[in-house]
Amino acid sequence: MIEGISIYEILTITSILFFIGVYGFITRTNLISILISVELILNASVVNFVIINKYLFPEVLQGVYFSIFIIAVAAAETALAVSIIISLYRQISSVDVKEIETMKY
Amino acid sequence: MERIIFYCLAAVIIVFAIASVTSRKMLRSVIYLSFVLISIAGIFFLIDYNFLAAIQLTVYAGGIVVLIIFSVLLVHHIEMELEMAKTSQKILTAIGCLTGLSVFLTAIYSFEFNEINNSLTTTTEDIGTGLLSYKAGGFILPFEVISVLLLAAMIGAIVIAKGKKLTEKNNDPQ
Q1: Residue A3 in contact with residue B3, Cβ under 8 Å?
Q2: CB atoms inside a 10 Å sphere around CB A19
Q3: Are the C-beta atoms of A31 and A85 separated by less than 8 Å?
Q4: Which helix (H) or strand (E) holds B69?
């Protein structure tokens, strides 16, 4: 654990990070920006898992395993999202959420 | 000393996260995101989870950011400025987020966490043993499921991104 830093301060930071992600998710109208906001939200949850593991249950490692799984799922999700964005851009020449109304193959 | 480093990292995280969701230039917003991810890796180093920090640096700051930069460069003109949401919508969302944040913080600060003082160091060997153990508390099944998921995501990404060359719509001379 970090000398002189309690769990409350770190949880405060991750809460702020989470809500910055939510703010970006709602206000942005571009698919790639929304993807960036989702990454922020996922990262806030990863830090929460690790911090709670380290501060409250230091003798087990479950939080670390779940963080590894979250990171793996986030990587898979990003790869799929990027391929969907590129495919959409080929079909309708835009990645704006307002103009996307077709997912037809 | 660690305290000062932590506060610096926290300031970097919050400032660049805000910059990344409000910047009007797409590429800059991705670079700000990479700063946030690297600072989070710094926090992992501070609490002595070196393996997780390395994963964060390689997968997030190395892989995902490069992937997003690629998609930005393939999709946008580099100087293009993003369209922003309406001011009323922004203010409304900000108020909603601040309300949610205050609910979170009251919940966190009213709970008595039972902190355990420790300076245990976790080695990569411990993590690997737990991840591949099939005894109670082992994580071999999710590990295998994740490997199948990654394979499926990879194949799916290739199939989706390959697609047809150009649709009729783009071929129209107009």
Answers
A1: yes
A2: 24
A3: yes
A4: helix B65-75
Beta bridge partners of A30: A96
- Residues of chain A in contact with residue B160, where contact means CB-CB under 8 angstroms, are 80, 83-84, 87
A-chain residues within 8 Å CB-CB of B108?
8, 11-12, 15
- The range of the structural domain enclosing residue A13 comes to 7-92
For chain A, the domain total comes to: 1
* CB proximity A102 to B under 8 Å: no
Q: How far is B163 from chain A (nearest CA, A)?
A: 7
Residue ranges in chain B whose pLDDT is less than 70: 78-79, 163-174
Q: Which residues of B97-135 are buried (b: 16+ CB within 10 A; e: fewer)?
A: beeebeebeeeeeeeeeeeeeeeeebeeeebeebbeeee
Q: Which residue of B has its CA nearest to A17?
A: B14
**B1-80 topology per CATH:** Four Helix Bundle (Hemerythrin (Met), subunit A) (1.20.120)
Q: What is the pLDDT of residues A2-51, one digit of tens each?
A: 777 888 999 999 999 999 999 999 998 888 899 999 999 999 999 999 99
Among B59, B158, B58, B19, which Cα is nearest to A82's?
A: B158
* Distance in angstroms (rounded) separating the CA atoms of residues A13 and A45: 11
Do A21 and B21 contact (CB within 8 A), yes or no? yes
